C-alpha cells in the first residue's frame, strides 16, 4: 500500500474488490433470501472516492482513513473504504446501538477521538496524523491501546482512559464492516448467508453439519484470504 501519497491521491490508486463469480452466483441463488441478497449487493457496491464525508470534517476523515490503514491493512487492488462506511454509519445512525458510559454517542465520540489523535501527532511528531509514516502512526496507536495517550484537561479531547475505550470501539466497527463485505465473506469461504429463501417451507438450512462435511453449494476459503 502506498502510504506516501496524500489522502485524495491515495484514494484514486485504490480499487474496490470484485466478487468471485461463484460467490456472486451464490448470492443471487434461491439459497439466499431476497432481503439478505439486497443487503449483500448493497454492501458490494464500490465506494465513491469523491464523496464528501457526512458526519466528519474533512481533516477528521483523513485521520480516520490513516488510522484504519494501520488497523485493517488492505490490498489497494481490493480496497474497502472503511472510513467512508463508518462515516455513513454515523450519518445514518446504523451503529451497534450502545456505548460506554464514559463516551458520548458515536458521532461525537469519533470526532473527539480523531481530534485527540491529531493532537497527539502534532505534540509528538509536529505533523498531522494523516501525514505521519506508518511506523509513527502505529507508535501512537499502540500507546492509545495501552492507555498511555490522551489529554486530561484539553477541551474537546479524550483522556487516556477514554481513548482506550474509543479505540476499542473503532476497531470493532472497522472489523465488523470489513468482514460484512461480501468480498471478504468470499475470501473466508463464509456460507452462513445460504440458509434458504423466504422462510417457512423455503427455509432449507443445512443438512451436512459434521466435522469435515460440506454442502455442494458451500464456498471454499481462498488462498491468502487476508489481503
Give the termini separation. 11 Å
Ranges where pLDDT stays below 50 over 5 or more residues in a row are: 1-9
Cα-based radius of gyration, to the nearest Å: 20 Å
**Treating each run of at least 4 consecutive H or I residues as one helix, how many helices?**
9
Query: Which percent bin holds the helix content?
Result: 40-55%
**SS-derived structural category:** mainly alpha
Nearest-integer average pLDDT: 89
What is the percentage of strand-forming residues?
Answer: under 5%
SSE string, helices as H and strands as E = HHHHHHHHH
Major sheet summary line? none
Principal-axis shape equals: elongated
Number of strands: 0
The tally of domains stands at 1
Description:
The chain has nine helices and no strands. With 227 residues, it is mainly α. The chain has one domain (21-202). Helix 6 (106-125) packs across helix 8.
Brief summary of the model shown:
The chain is mostly helical and 227 residues long. It is built from nine helices and no strands. It has one domain (21-202).
Which descriptors apply to this entry?
elongated, mainly alpha, disordered N terminus, 47% helix, 227 residues
Secondary structure layout:
Blueprint: H1 7-12, H2 21-27, H3 34-44, H4 58-71, H5 82-91, H6 106-125, H7 134-145, H8 160-179, H9 182-188
